[in-house]
């Protein structure tokens, strides 16, 4: 399922870039979470809480998200199974986007990206694999090496940094939705323990 999610995101991204500017604007407005529209017509717009997770704003945005999904997704999928993993992934993404929208209910800025869902995967990972080692590139002036950092340290630092950014940045401004990252991570920490693990 991890590879399927990556493939779908890649296909959707290249479908996006094949559109001309007016078509792309309409596509984003239709399938992204636009807080103002979500709360004005929730019944029709709630599908965007899911569809927005498959849209990305740039190749770098896509590549970064897919890298983290590949890095952390497989292990969680192995213990949950395909169906529960997909449910967990999408639920964390829905929570992330909804929290971001609640904080900026009058915003007309579209919310897109899989990062909220992936933050949920990271939240689940830190619970289930705290001592797993993450290979990390360390650059100190001219010295470059790869070190192995425990997941609890790596992800703990990441969520602390995202929380500080969420507190410092106006959520109503265009840019990275740090609050969605925090909300997705917290959702992952809360939801994973109540999901049954796969029995082989």
TrEMBL record:
Keyword Transmembrane found: yes
Alphabetic keyword roster: Membrane, Transmembrane, Transmembrane helix
GO cellular component: membrane
Recorded topology in the membrane: Multi-pass membrane protein
Domain Peptidase S54 rhomboid: 44-194
Listed GO MF terms: serine-type endopeptidase activity
InterPro entries for this protein: Peptidase_S54_rhomboid_dom (IPR022764), Rhomboid-like_sf (IPR035952), Rhomboid_protease_S54 (IPR050925)
Broad class of the protein's primary localization: membrane
Membrane-traversing stretches: 54-73, 85-103, 109-127, 139-161, 173-195
Subcellular location(s) of the protein: Membrane
Domain of life: Bacteria
Pfam families linked: Rhomboid
Protein name, UniProt field: Rhomboid family protein
């Amino acid at each position: 399922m991890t590879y399927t999610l990556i493939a779908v995101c890649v296909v959707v991204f290249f479908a996006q870039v094949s559109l001309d500017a007016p078509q792309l604007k309409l596509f984003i407005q239709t399938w992204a979470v636009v807080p103002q529209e979500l709360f004005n017509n929730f019944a029709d717009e709630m599908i965007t809480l899911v569809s927005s997770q498959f849209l990305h704003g740039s190749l770098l945005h896509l590549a970064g998200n897919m890298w983290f999904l590949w890095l952390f997704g497989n292990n969680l999928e192995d213990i949950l199974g395909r169906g529960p993993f997909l449910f967990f992934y999408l639920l964390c993404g829905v929570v992330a986007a909804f929290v971001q929208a609640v904080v900026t209910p009058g915003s007309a800025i579209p919310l897109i990206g899989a990062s909220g869902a992936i933050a949920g995967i990271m939240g689940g990972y830190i619970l289930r694999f705290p001592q797993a080692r993450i290979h990390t590139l360390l650059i100190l002036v001219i010295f470059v090496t790869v070190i192995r950092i425990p997941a609890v340290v790596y992800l703990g630092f990441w969520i602390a940094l995202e929380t500080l950014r969420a507190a410092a940045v106006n959520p109503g401004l265009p840019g990275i939705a740090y609050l969605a990252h925090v909300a997705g991570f917290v959702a992952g920490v809360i939801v994973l323990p109540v999901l049954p693990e796969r029995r082989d």
